[in-house]
UniProtKB/TrEMBL annotation:
The lineage of its organism: Bacteria, Bacillati, Actinomycetota, Actinomycetes, Micrococcales. InterPro entries: TonB_box_CS (IPR010916). The keyword Signal applies. Gene3D superfamilies: 2.60.40.2700. Residues 1-27 form the signal peptide. The keyword Signal applies. This is Ig-like domain-containing protein.
Amino acid sequence: MESPVSARKLSKPLGALSALVMGVAMTAVPAAAHAEEADTKAPIVTVKSGDSFTVVANGDYEKVSFSLQDAGKIDKVVLNGVTKDLSNNIWSDLNHVKPGVFGAIHGENTLEVYDVAGNVTTHTFVLNPQAPTVTVKEGDTFTATDGAAYEKVSFKLTDAGKVDKVVLNGVVKDLANDKWSDLNYVKPGVFGAVLGENTLEVYDVAGNVTTVHFTLSATGPSVTIKDNATYTVADGDAYELISFKLFDEGKVDRVVVNGVVKDLSNNKWSDLNYVKPGAFGGVLGENTLVAYDISGNSTTVNFTLVEPMVAAGTPSITSHLPRGRIKQGAELTVNEGDWAQGAQLTYQWFRDGEAVEGETGQMLHLKGGRWPAGTVITVEVTGSLDGHRPAVASTTVVATR
Ligand SMILES: [Ca+2]
Ligand SMILES: [Ca+2]
Ligand SMILES: [Ca+2]
Ligand SMILES: [Ca+2]
């Protein structure tokens, strides 16, 4: 209870003292407070991780992002002498630094980070962005060439800072971000590829791009019928036996006859020989052959197969008359010649081109006054055999007086 009293007693002097103290405080206390809060610590600079921020390739950066921290607030950064002012915050960022951005250059860079109090942290780093390497993969599975063009093409994509994506004629295909990647089996209609000129851009995760131009073609194999009698036996538009010559600049892969696949060694030139009913999928009647190149382009050919014709003999006519004379009264006999074994033979005789009714035997008797000199006498021999088409052979003689 004394203090308030004495305070009351000393109210006046205390007031003066108080003013004095205040006066001291006005000068000394703020000075002391400033000393207490003075920022002498330079900013902390750390590299941000994650593909979207920082890409390390072969020990250097393709791009780099920094996290900046200072309790006294970050003021600005100076990169290779180029100042970038930042809003004064405790936390700040300098993201996606690569050559050409914020004064960054290819090679060694110097980053100075200032806090509001003027403390500076200097950080040096090397930027060495390299665009992805794009190589064409070899092997029939991956790539087929057609002169300077490709019928299909596959690419190996590499980047020490990881491959991000490809853009083919403007169509984006995102890839898992890996150092090695692939773009396989590119042909017209796939991944945005088109017939003719194509542009492939390959991006790494730092945004570096390699551009490749290439041409695509899509030509099915050419299929021609071999006309040598050893290979092909035709009867009008139909074939007893048929052989094909196949060609494709991008290599012939296989043929499919009526759904039956025959794989061929992958060469530009190939053959499919001796197709007939029962061979390589061939059937009697209509057949469809599809020839494929190794890129999947195809050519379709239709053809008709018929049974083989019976092997015919060469018939001849003999007469029972002396010196084999062909005249009224003669008995003619056909010698049918040498036919296929087992062939069933039938006969028909003709007089001046008209079939003579009932004359279907091996012999013909020139009787009844109907065979004057000059009459043309023909015999047709027809041979039949299972699994064969009938063959017809004929021979002709002319009656004399
Ligand atoms: Ca790269
Ligand atoms: Ca990606
Ligand atoms: Ca082709
Ligand atoms: Ca093949």
